[in-house]
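Technical annex, item 7. During the second reporting period the consortium partners agreed on a shared format for inverse folding records so that results from different sites could be compared directly. Each record opens with the tokenized structure and is followed by the designed sequence. A conforming record, contributed by the partner at site C, is shown below for reference.
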């Protein structure tokens, strides 16, 4: 008889634990690193972006991809260069899932791009943007656009922000988990992106 009661207790334990966690502990749903942007913000329809050669570009063309977005002036100081390096390494570290990610550098002025960053930033989509429009779309802790990295989901919603001077290992883990959890969703890729 004791064996039967022990089996019953072992079978019920996971169910009791699940009810306890859901109704008593109340999981917060916070990511292990970074912060969620609530409510999520769609890419503004009137966001004016241009390629380096002056052609207009619409970020909605990239729906279906995860976008890692950073903003910085064209001079690209040491912090900007570090961000570009982290974005590249985090994308590479995703292995077979790296093709689901596009790195975007929103250049906040009309100056010439620092030629020293063109090679390390190869593969990064570089777009000139109006800083006032960006400030209305991208939340930043102190009003400065340079520093944080933002994540846009494949539906075109700004959903997450990583801090300035991030921990790239923690950032990589969060993005890997997002890609894993969305593996079953097949997004329509409008155009191939390098």
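Designed sequence (site C submission):
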């Amino acid at each position: 008889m004791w064996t039967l009661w022990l089996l019953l207790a072992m079978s019920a334990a996971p169910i009791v634990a699940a009810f306890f966690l859901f109704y008593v502990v109340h999981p917060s749903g916070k990511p292990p690193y970074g912060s969620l942007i609530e409510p999520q913000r769609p890419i503004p329809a009137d966001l004016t972006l241009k390629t380096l050669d002056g052609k207009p570009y619409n970020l909605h063309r990239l729906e279906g991809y995860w976008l890692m977005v950073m903003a910085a002036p064209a001079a690209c100081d040491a912090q900007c260069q570090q961000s570009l390096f982290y974005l590249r390494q985090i994308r590479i570290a995703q292995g077979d899932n790296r093709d689901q990610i596009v790195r975007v550098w929103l250049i906040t002025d009309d100056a010439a791009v620092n030629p020293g960053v063109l090679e390390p930033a190869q593969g990064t989509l570089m777009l000139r943007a109006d800083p006032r429009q960006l400030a209305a779309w991208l939340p930043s802790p102190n009003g400065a656009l340079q520093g944080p990295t933002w994540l846009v989901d494949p539906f075109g919603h700004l959903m997450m922000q990583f801090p300035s001077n991030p921990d790239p290992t923690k950032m990589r883990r969060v993005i890997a988990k997002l890609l894993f959890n969305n593996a079953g969703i097949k997004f329509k890729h409008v155009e191939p992106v390098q």
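The chain has four helices and eight strands. The domain at 28-181 is CATH 3.40.30.10 (Glutaredoxin). All partners now use this format for quarterly exchanges.
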